[in-house]
Design brief:
By secondary structure, the protein is an alpha+beta fold. The protein is built from 2 helices and 10 strands. Strand 9 and strand 10 form a beta hairpin.
Amino acid sequence: MKKTALAFLLTFSLSFANLTEELEFKPEKEIINKDEKVCFQFKNNSKDEIYLPSSAPWAVFEDEEFDKIVFSPIATQQILKLKPFEQKKWCWDLKDFQGEVVPSGDYSIRLTVFKEGKRIFLTSKIKVKPGVAETSKKDK
């Protein structure tokens, strides 16, 4: 029983590690000032085609449980194919659904992709800091 459980855990951890190397999703910067925008990219480093469920298959959340959604872009509902070693880039202006700049804090950006018919969520984390204008106001 112990050997079976160990073999399962080892197989699962190796396949997960391989998946994260093959599918790379990360922001250009992890710490962003409020007066900037954040861009992030997805790289298909695998030998397989990856499918995106829309032209902007990402959403921003305030929490790590993905319960509090802050923003999700309006996107065409068409399936996009990313060939092996292709990449796609998106940017977010740090605004919520009401068009207001989000408060300083930690955010998770979750991307939805499909590989071999299976839905996969990839997550990147960013930290939003007060903008330059806000910081200089507090110093005065």
